[in-house]
Amino acid sequence: MCAYNRVNGVPSCADSSLLFKTVRGEWDFKGYVTSDCDAVAIIHNDQGYAKAPEDAVVDVLKAGMDLNCGSYLQNYTKSAVLQKKLPESQVDRALHNLFAVRMRLGLFNGNPVPNPFGNIGMDQICSPEHQILALEAARNGIVLLKNDAKLLPLPKSTMSLAVIGPNANSPQTLIGNYAGPPCKSVTPLQALESYIKNTVYHPGCDTVSCSTAAIDKAVDIAKRADYVVLIMGLDQTEEREALDRVDLFLPGRQQELIVSVAKAAKRPVVLVLLSGGPIDISFAKDDPRIGGIFWAGYPGEGGGNALAEVIFGDHNPGGRLPVTWYPQDFTKVPMTDMRMRPESSLDYPGRTYRFYKGDTVFEFGYGLSYSKYSYSFTRVSQNNLYLNHSSSLHTKETSESVRYMLVSEVGAEICDERKITVHVGVKNNGELAGKHPVLLYVRHGNHGNGRPKKQLIGFRSVILSGGEMGEIQFEVSPCEHLSRANEYGLMVMEEGRHFLVVGDDKHPITIII
Question: Which are the catalytic amino acids?
Answer without folding.
Answer: 36
